[in-house]
Amino acid sequence: MAKLGEASYTVSASVADTIGNTTSTTHDVLVNTAAPQVIINAIGGDDVLNVAEVSVNQTLSGRVVNAEAGQTVTVSLGAVKITPPTVNGDGTWSVSIPSADLTALGDGGLTVTATVTNQAGNQGQGDREIAIDAGLPGLRIDTVAGDDIINAIELAQPLVINGTSTDLAAGSVVDRDGQR
């Protein structure tokens, strides 16, 4: 089996009993060991988002080879969780990144990663380095309650929300839903 190449094959079997009765059957199988290729297109035209570009939603897009339409593309942009897009019939995918998420990342370089698994179970990943150069402070909220799900026990206890900031002056006040 190790010598089979990437292709469709028909497996056939037949059997005869002691009095000469025969029966046979066939079954089609596909050998697919090739990992998908994942391409991430430039964001903002040049992979450097300025203040005007982070102030509006941006589209992150790309294409995949060797993955079927409807497969989920898992996309991460630094610490931002992105609603996963799916592969279109022509192999392309795209997702809108909200301005608030881009602003929260703050200035600096980060890696965009996109991963897809084809129907055969082969996984492929693409990476692209981008930068935000908008002169903005960054503010990130860490995972809440260990899994971003607050259960009944956690709801009955004081909730601590942690995070980090960049490019903020010492003593800056952070508001939560309009409260300090």
From TrEMBL:
<dbReference type="Pfam" id="PF19077">
    <property type="entry name" value="Big_13"/>
</dbReference>
<feature type="domain" description="Bacterial Ig-like">
    <location>
        <begin position="67"/>
        <end position="133"/>
    </location>
</feature>
<protein>
    <recommendedName>
        <fullName>Bacterial Ig-like domain-containing protein</fullName>
    </recommendedName>
</protein>
<dbReference type="InterPro" id="IPR013783">
    <property type="entry name" value="Ig-like_fold"/>
</dbReference>
<dbReference type="InterPro" id="IPR044016">
    <property type="entry name" value="Big_13"/>
</dbReference>
